[in-house]
Amino acid sequence: MNNSMSRPGGNGPMLGAFAAGWAVIYADRTVLYPLLTVIAADFGLSSTEAGLLTSTYFLMYLVLQLPAGMAGDRWGLKRVLLATYALAGAGVLGLGLTGASYASLLFFVGLHGLGAGGYYPAAYGTMLQVVAPERRGLGAAVIGTGMAAGLLAGLAMSGPVYEWLGSWRAPFLLLCIPTFLMLGFFQLAVPAVRSAATASWRDYKAILADRELWLINVVTFTALYGFWVAVTWGPTFLKLERGFSLGQAGFYTGLVALTALPAGLAWGKLSDRYGRKPVALLVLPCCALALGVLSQVTSPPAIIAALLAFGLFSNSAFTPIMAAWTGDIVSRRYPGLMGAAVGVFNFVVMSAAIVAPTVSGFLRDATGSLVPAMLAGSALVLAGSTLILLLPGKMKEK
Question: Phi and psi dihedrals of 245, rounded to 5?
Fold first, then answer.
């Protein structure tokens, strides 16, 4: 393992490239959410059908998780990164240039999701092998800053660009430019990393049978379920149930990224120093509380405060802890299978992005409000918090 993370600036270009790549992927992804009501009106869609757009993205995103990780372990994670990122760019370009029917929207959203699906196992699989174990939490958090920045950028630009240019396709056309430019950045800054040996199916089965890895996966699933309830339907909730304009609704939902940026770095560093379990036990229950409060408050200052608090403890702040925890286990129990293990992790946790938007849309159709959907998300996150207690404080060898 290359421990150059311990040297100042040793892995700075690589981490910077991964953070920037995550920012662009997240902007590509989240620019859609404030536009859901516009697209639904344009095509005459129900809330469930509009939610299916985001679910289609994540269904295709998940399809590539394990294959991308396995391919990266065998032939090189950098090769997988470049090929799949180019595919993601093609999907964004297609949304900007076409999207003349609901079927074509589903196709290009799915194409972008398929390409984006190779990013997590390639980027985190590389980082977790290159960065020293005692800095993995911080390394994962640095990459996670891109997630938060892209979330804010996508949500903040979506409404204003639409209102300025009068087309919901315009934000996608603008974003395809940095998406394709990232390919050159990756080529220059990302090292080529792959397993030294060819893994067998027995090795992969061992990952899938590991109880502690599954607990980490399920806990993180609950955290991301709450996150995607808030992010995918947050702009609609603020616009229709709290009286914000489209531009304000997207911007205020994106406020979760402002606090997630410093919080993710802080939690990641603290988990390196004091252990993953105590930090996770602190962060996740607070996430559940913040989401519950967000569903109840009505004044703009209280809504902004709830969103900022949610950002302190939600996806971008919490997931780096669990990703580093996965890396700790895999590097010692299953060396050479980091790409596949990270692919399994992200497959499980990101399946929340399929379930949450559609279930929340169904609950809104059934009740006429998104409050029940948010409360359900809060309850699930709280249930996930209790599962952390089942994980050992210190890693056991196998």
Answer: -75, 170
